[in-house]
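Training component of the fellowship. As part of building independent skills, the fellow (R.M.) carried out the full modelling exercise for a liganded target. The chosen ligand was heme C. The inputs are recorded below so that the supervisory panel can assess the work.
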Amino acid sequence: MRKIVLGTMIAAASLMAANFAPCAGCHGAAAEKAALGKSQIIKGWPVEKTVAALKGYKDGSYGGAMKCVMKGQVARLSDADIQDLATQISKF
Ligand code: HEC
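Fellow's submitted model of the complex:
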């Protein structure tokens, strides 16, 4: 099961620059879960709020006890990717 999920994520991620699939592993397919039981539920967050959080993880100015987990996730995202992901999350 895990292999299938990972394979799907990699396939999906290579099709689109900013795909939510890798995030879904922790946050849920529709961002409806508390990632690793710790994060806030980000489903439906306004675009600006998500952009601020993701940029904050990138530059270290935002986050809680588990912010290192997210720093790794956003390190390679461009501003355009962040905007794109935030737009997707706002629509869940
Ligand atoms: C390995 C699991 C994991 C993955 C994959 C992951 N996240 Fe997270 N995410 C977390 C955790 C844990 C937190 C809470 C971190 C903290 O303590 O600040 C979090 C927090 C967040 C927050 C802020 C919510 C809050 O609690 O303040 C946003 C927004 C977010 N993630 C978006 C994303 C996006 C977008 C992706 C994909 C690029 C992603 N995450 C991938 C685990 C993950």
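The panel noted the following from the submitted structure. Residues 22-23, 25-27, 35-36, 38-40, 42, 50, 53-54, 63-67, 69-70, 73, 85 surround heme C (CB under 6 Å). The two ends are 25 Å apart (CA to CA).
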